[in-house]
Specification:
Catalyzes the conversion of GlcNAc-6-P into GlcNAc-1-P during the synthesis of uridine diphosphate/UDP-GlcNAc, a sugar nucleotide critical to multiple glycosylation pathways including protein N- and O-glycosylation. By secondary structure, the protein is an alpha/beta fold. The chain is built from 19 helices and 22 strands. It folds into four domains: 154 residues, Alpha-D-Glucose-1,6-Bisphosphate, subunit A, domain 3 (Alpha-D-Glucose-1,6-Bisphosphate, Chain A, domain 3), CATH 3.40.120; 115 residues, Alpha-D-Glucose-1,6-Bisphosphate, subunit A, domain 3 (Alpha-D-Glucose-1,6-Bisphosphate, Chain A, domain 3), CATH 3.40.120; 119 residues, Alpha-D-Glucose-1,6-Bisphosphate, Chain A, domain 3, CATH 3.40.120.10; 98 residues, 2-Layer Sandwich (TATA-Binding Protein), CATH 3.30.310. The structure holds 2-acetamido-2-deoxy-6-O-phosphono-alpha-D-glucopyranose (16G) and magnesium ion (MG).
């Protein structure tokens, strides 16, 4: 390591005094103007990780669904997975080292992680469409080159595409060709093969409206759509030509506000979906004939996919295990449906893709989805081999099912949740099963739920256990939550410190929206009182304004904890007309 060269270069990417950042759930994320030194240092770290693993490492510059002014960075490990936890600590140390300590921290990491400094290093880089991303990815490149690493800059990519590239390179092309073209071809040919029978029938499942959050998903889907048309024709909205990234659109907006994005033309019963800013999340939705909005989130996506896979597994009859992994945010109705109706084992992990991903690896076939629409399906090597063999050797029906599974394996991006890949899987299943979006939605009815945020002086005073469903500290908070939950039917509530924002998140569900909102409010208040709340105390929902809405009903918007949430249409309905 030429530490003098590092010191010289680092001055050009100086760390602002006193700035402390943490490699969180999805890497570093903050205002773009504070990230130059972090990018340079993540270039350095990627070289060390590459030398240590003797593999290609990825660096993605993105802040996903955050506002356009933010940015972020995360490292991708050799199998296309998120960076190993022990290296997250190294990342945090390196990012926070004062200028003069940088060489020592680099040496420390190399020693602790037993990095062979003579080994070659190769790093691949991708970035989203934020105005700051190009400059910041150049800082990553500066870090890589000053430590003598080789690199390939893919330029604009979705996050899942970068994960795919890393795995392709480290599997010597076995997973696919490490080019954007290779990605389009792999997914599209699996989709076309899988849907052959359905699309011959000429049903009307063929158009889908996609809200691209004014992000990278729009560019990539526009390039890719010719590969899978005419089987499926996608119509892009919020493609970045006019609007601002993630502003009033995208999967995160739709999920958290439970309403459609701006900038999309929805007709009754039309199937629509939204990607987030870096295209690793997807949610579906539609308006019914009465103008009511229906959200189909990650839980329902997991249910659709698991039931399809379970049917195919029964047909091939080979005893392969199927498991579903969720987080505490999964709607109680989805868990009940999966366990009691579908008889599929369900597991709960902490929030964050890496936790779900690792749990899902324990099954022959592991389906994982967060309610927010992030997820994929993992197939073990043994399952893949078995399925491939059955697709060649077995008889008729069995072979047909095995062939479908074979194509599904190729259609999923197994490195990480991928909005484009998930969209194609969902479209294929709906077409093959002849299901409308309403029929899919009707699998079960979501319990009313509410998420709130509480500001506290230090969110780390809250620690949790049992996959974030129980509070351990501060004392008395869990008991208070238990007492509040007991007051309502079908109720559940939990709180956890956010990994991406300086707040505590509160989740509640119960038998009615009114009860859910009361429970969420009461739990917020308990957090405020017992965990050092700051600023304004949580307030019960206030009716802020009433206005006429389509077909003479009323829209009532509520403000709670300073946050706008939900519009209840027809709440007063005809009574006021
Ligand atoms: C990150 C995670 C996402 C998680 C979210 C939780 C990845 C790639 N992304 O966006 O999975 O749901 O954080 O945010 O891991 P929170 O901790 O602020 O609730
Ligand atoms: Mg994202």
């Amino acid at each position: 390591m030429d530490l003098d060269a590092v010191t010289k270069q680092s001055v050009l990417h100086a760390k602002p005094d006193g700035l402390i950042l943490q490699y969180g759930t999805a890497g570093f994320r903050t205002k773009a103007e504070h990230l130059d030194h972090v990018m340079f240092r993540m270039g350095l770290l990627a070289v060390l990780r590459s030398k240590q693993t003797k593999s290609t490492i990825g660096v993605m510059v993105t802040a996903s669904h955050n506002p356009e002014e933010d940015n972020g960075v995360k490292l991708v490990d050799p199998l296309g997975e998120m960076l190993a936890a022990s290296w997250e600590e190294h990342a945090t140390c390196l990012a926070n080292a004062e200028e003069q300590h940088l060489p020592r921290v680099l040496v420390d990491i190399s020693e602790k992680a037993a990095v062979d400094l003579h080994q070659d290093a190769f790093v691949v880089i991708g970035r989203d469409t934020r105005p700051s991303s190009e400059r910041l990815s150049q800082s990553v490149i500066d870090g890589v080159t000053v430590l003598g690493g080789q690199f390939y800059d893919y330029g604009l990519l979705t996050t899942p595409q970068l994960h795919y590239m890393v795995f392709c390179r480290n599997s010597n092309g076995q997973y696919g060709k490490a080019t954007v073209e290779g990605y389009y071809q792999k997914l599209s040919s699996a989709f076309v093969e899988l849907t052959k029978q359905a699309f011959c029938r000429g049903d009307d499942h063929r158009t889908l409206k996609v809200d691209c959050a004014n992000g990278i998903g729009a560019l990539k889907l526009a390039e890719m759509k010719h590969y899978f048309s005419p089987g499926l024709s996608v119509q892009l909205f919020n493609d970045g030509t006019k609007g601002k990234l993630n502003h009033l659109c995208g999967a995160d907006f739709v999920k958290s506000h439970q309403k459609p994005p701006q900038g999309i033309e929805m007709r009754a019963n039309e199937r629509c979906c939204s990607f987030d800013g870096d295209a690793d999340r997807i949610v579906y939705y539609y308006h019914d004939a009465d103008g009511q909005f229906h959200l189909i989130d990650g839980d329902k996506i997991a249910t659709l996919i698991s039931s399809f896979l379970k049917e195919l597994l029964l047909e091939i009859g080979d005893g392969l295990s199927l498991g579903v992994v969720q987080t505490a945010y999964a709607n109680g109705s989805s868990t009940r449906y999966l366990e009691e109706v579908m008889k599929v084992p369900v597991y709960c992990t902490k929030t964050g893709v890496k936790h779900l991903h690792h749990k899902a690896q324990e099954f022959d076939i592991g389906v994982y989805f967060e309610a927010n629409g992030h997820g994929t399906v993992l197939f073990s090597k043994a399952a893949e081999t078995k399925i491939k063999q059955l697709a060649k050797e077995s008889e008729d029906e069995k072979r047909k099912a095995a062939k479908m599974l074979e194509n599904i394996i190729d259609l999923f991006n197994q490195t990480i949740g991928d909005a484009i890949s998930d969209m194609l899987v969902i479209e294929a299943i709906l077409a093959l099963k002849g299901l409308t979006v309403q029929q899919w939605d009707a699998l079960y009815t979501d319990l009313p739920n509410r998420q709130l945020k509480v500001k506290v002086a230090d969110r780390q005073v809250i620690s949790t256990t049992d996959a974030e469903r129980q509070v351990v500290k501060p004392p008395g908070l869990q008991e208070a939550i238990n007492d509040l939950v007991k007051k309502y039917r079908l109720s559940r509530a939990f709180v956890r410190p956010s990994g991406t924002e300086d707040i505590v998140r509160v989740y509640a569900e119960a038998d009615s929206q009114e009860n859910t909102d009361s429970l969420a409010y009461e739990v917020s208040l308990a957090v405020f009182q017992l965990a050092g709340g700051i600023g304004e105390r949580p307030q019960r929902g206030l009716i802020i304004f009433l206005k006429h809405y389509q077909n003479h009903s009323l829209e009532i918007a509520l403000l709670e904890n300073g946050l706008w949430f939900s519009s209840f249409k027809s709440l007063l309905g005809k009574a006021v007309e």
